Amino acid sequence: QFDGERIDAGNLPVDSAATLHWRRSRWLSLLPLLGLGAFGRIKGPLVTPRNLRSHDCVYFHEVGQARPSVISLVSVDAIRTG
Predict the structure, then answer these.
(1) Rounded distance, CA 40 to CA 82, Å?
(2) C-beta of residue 47 within 8 angstroms of C-beta of residue 7
(3) Burial 35-62 (b: 16+ CB within 10 A, else e)
(4) Which of 34, 41, 48, 77 has its CA 20 to 30 A from that of 20?
(5) Separation of alpha carbons 49 and 46, rounded Å
(6) Which pLDDT tens digit goes with each residue over 16-61?
(7) In whole numbers, what is the pLDDT of the chain averaged over residues?
(8) What CA–CA distance (Å, rounded) separates 38 from 60?
(9) 0.90 surpassed by pTM
(10) Is 33 helix (H, G, I), strand (E, B) or coil?
(11) CA 14, 16, 18: angle at the middle one, nearest 5?
């Protein structure tokens, strides 16, 4: 889910990846709080490049679990489809 837009994994290409790049610098991280840019960016053949915000997430359905887990993209460095 990117900025409220939910992307269905069934529509994503198989065996593809995307990398997430985050602003790690203390000073540069202040810019998005002031409305000047994004917290991060996602790039790669898996999705079209776009800006990331702190509330973006991925839903991951682990084997044996009844419901998918919600994982904040802030803690993700890459996404790969199988």
Answers:
(1) 24
(2) yes
(3) eeebbbebeeebeeebebeeebbbeeee
(4) 34
(5) 9
(6) 899 998 776 666 666 655 666 667 888 988 888 888 887 889 888 8
(7) 81
(8) 24
(9) no
(10) helix
(11) 140
Find the length of the chain.
82
State residue 36's pLDDT score: 63
Residue 50 identity (one-letter amino acid): R
Burial of 68 (0-12, 13-18, 19+ CB in 10 A): exposed
CA dihedral for 24, 28, 32, 37, sign (positive or negative)? negative
Enumerate the H helices of the chain as residue ranges.
30-33
